[in-house]
Amino acid sequence: MTETIQENKGVSQSIDFYKIFRVFLSRWYWIAATVGIALSIAWVYLWYTPPIYQTGASLKLEDSSPSSLGRDGGVQASNYNYTDKIQAESFTIRSNEVISNAVKTLDYKISYYLKGRVRTTELYPNVPFVIEIIKQDSVNFDRALYEVTAADDEHFNLYLADNDKLKTVYKYGQNINIGNMIFRIKDKIPGKSTYQFKFNSKEDFIGRAMGGLYIGEAARFTNVMSLSQTDANAVFAADILNAIMKEYVKYDIIQRRRSAKQTVDFIDSQLGFIDNEAGKSGSNLANFKTQNKLVDMSSSTSMTVGKLSDFEKQKTELKLKQFGIRQLQEQLNSNKSKIEIGLDLDGELNSGLSLLVTQLNSLLANREAKLSQFNSDSQPVKNIDQQIANVKASIRSSVDAMLKKNEQTIRYFDNQIAGVTQSMSTIPVKEQNFVKLQTNFEVNNKVRTFLSEKKLDAEMNAAAVVSGASIVNPAYPSYYAISPNANKAYSTALTLGLAAGFGLILLVRFLNPYIYDKETVESLTHTPIIGVIRKFPDFIDQDSRQALSLSKPKSVFAESVRSVRTNLSFLASHKQSKVICITSEISGEGKSFVTVNLASTLALIEKRVVLIAADLRKSKLHKAFGSDNKKGLSSLLSGQATLQDVMIHDDMHHIDFIPSGPVPPNPSELLHTEAMKELLKDLQAKYDYVLVDTAPVGLVSDAIPLIRSSDVNLFVIRSGVSQQRAANIPERLSREYGLSNLAIVLNAFGDDALYSNYYTTDYSRGGGNSTYYYSDYSGYSGSGYYDDENRKWWMFWKKK
Q1: Cβ burial, residue 695 (10 Å; 0-12/13-18/19+)
Q2: String of DSSP letters for 641-690
Q3: Distance (Å, rounded) from C-alpha 599 to C-alpha 574?
């Protein structure tokens, strides 16, 4: 009865966090390399990227917090929001008119640069040499970048920055006609430096100023606006920001004085006409009095003239107010972003209408702010549009009522004037004409005096108007670069480098299809492992003669082979002689190498060993014994030679060997013959161990009859060469052919932590291959039992 190899159930494995740590520690130099590369890229980025600077300033808006409307105002009460006002004013600050006027105040026409080995630096506000523009087209002129270097004390070189081949030599002060302009360089260019310059238009700087401008609240619920400007030139950032704030203050004053200016212009147009009429009426009155020898009027006539002049004065005042009302109507109908109340209406508007105008301005500002976040068709904007329409309707209703009341009052005074004029028909014709002339003269004088007073009031009020904003903190150049941030760049590079290193390790493991350690084998198959053979410590030639000699008997490799030899003694232990078949999935996995080493170690303990090269297609086993392959197993099985003819006796290693022989045309059929069975039977009677090196079962079926007739079958899996599918082949063979004597040998184990399985088999629960004791001999370095162990530095110190 043949003793079978116990087939265990699935292994019990648990995560070993130390193994996970060793996976990453084994390739620490990968992580170090990726971190080094990332930090180098960050260093290059910081070196070549020009720094960006930021400066800040603050503006204070007028502290106007209008009270909410009451119920009598007809509009729902709302709290004043400084955020909306600041957002609305930010659109004004960013307007082309404000930015354009701010750029005008700077020296923008020529930009100078200093060319360095790594990057080019703008020299604003410094001027290394003066360029005088003699003639320049206002729009169409060349904006190319020029380079200039000193040639000698009287000449310099000028050429395009991107084409230094077209180099032209000019004298200092010589007129240069290029690109629709004429200019000259007056000052001597500093030597040993390369400078660049280009000509700019005002529009070239508008985008630069707008691109770096940021506006926001300095703090919540305050009327202070925070402004900042970012630019590659710290001085330019401060200068343009200060210029923008100053131009905004000027612009705000101009807008606030617009209503008063319109009133003054209207009064001036009226005064021109009244002055002319007053002059004519005065001349006519004087001529009439001279011609008719009249000195004075009667008291009744004087009273009539006084009434007429008073009525005309009040009528003129009403017309002036009517102009202010229509001005407010025009602003409502033109959908302006802000409504200004005329100075002549300040005393006429009731508190409800004033608050309506204030709320309309707040809603218009809020709408501008919403448009920066939403489309015009979005619901939040539509809600504000509806509120604006409701407030405008209320304002129009009040304005229409005021205009109607004003027109009724004017008609009343017209009727009064007509009544007084009618009452003068009862006096004599001469005196009647005198009264008319006197009335015209006094009315014109009173109206002129009234308009002059109103003009003076309007001009005084316009002069008293101040800006709705004041500069709290001006901007100063800040030479602390906000970008690129060295600390952030290096920390980001370090993080990305670590992530790339760890990711590379995980990617290599994820893409790895090979088996490296026994835990991986145990997780893929139930077939037991009887031993792990370590990687051979020296170079192995194609003949494998070093392994046969076992030149280092105290090496870890030699001990691992002995471990397999020891476990073989427990297999089919009831038999005095054992036939052991060694196979693998594909060639190159070391089945012949394992066969030679097992034969050598078995011979060392004085076992009678014969080794058969049964791979009739591609055997190289004869090279290990230094023999030819002219005769061998194929010759024996085909009847062309006897056993004595093909047997080779290696007296040095005490091993008998049968080479494979010439490649036959029918290798699989030869191994199926009765002659092969008889051969094994004969050898089994003479030897303790018959080792059969077969062809790979994953490529050909030659080894199947040998596997089925062997006492023990060893399936070789090579670490780093055998793919994971190889671990399933022993189970498939056992299932298909009813075998129970298959075991696995893991060959060339190198303890590469990168590819090791992060699970550890739990033998305490009876899982795994606890039937056979073996070790992979990892973790025993420095024990002093092996010649080729890697001693740690502290071991050498201890030995001394």
Answers
A1: buried
A2: S-HHHH-EEETTTTEEEE---SPPS-HHHHHTSHHHHHHHHHHHHH-SEE
A3: 20
Per-residue exposure over 728-740, b if at least 16 CB sit within 10 Å of its own CB, e if not: ebbbebbeeeebe
**For residue 32, how far is the Cα from the chain centroid?**
25
CA distance 624 to 344: 119
pLDDT digits (tens, 9 = 90+) for 577-632: 899 999 999 988 989 889 998 998 999 899 999 999 999 988 888 888 888 888 99
Query: Helices in 293-427 by DSSP H: which ranges?
Result: 299-333, 351-371, 379-423
| Burial classification of residue 80, based on how many CB atoms lie within 10 Å of its CB (0-12 exposed, 13-18 middle, 19 or more buried) | middle
Q: Give the Cα separation of 30 and 62 in Å (integer).
A: 62
DSSP-assigned letter for residue 763? G
Q: How many helices (H) and strands (E) does the chain have?
A: 24, 24
Please give the structure tokens belonging to residue 518: 């026994």
Which residues 6+ apart lie within 8 Å of 98 measured at CB? 92, 244, 247, 248, 251
pTM value? 0.64
The CA radius of gyration of the chain, in Å to the nearest whole number, is 54
Terminal alpha carbon distance of the chain = 58
Domains of the chain: 82-255 (no CATH), 258-464 (no CATH), 526-747 (3.40.50.300)
Single-letter code of the amino acid located at 281 = S
Q: Tell me how far apart the alpha carbons of residues 90 and 376 are, in angstroms, rounded to a whole number.
A: 19
How far apart are alpha carbons 582 and 590 in whole angstroms? Answer: 10
Give the up-direction half-sphere exposure of residue 710: CA atoms within 13 A in the CB hemisphere: 31
**What digits encode the pLDDT tens for the residues 633-685?**
999 999 999 999 999 998 888 899 999 999 999 888 999 999 999 999 999 99
Q: For residue 664, give the amino acid letter.
A: P
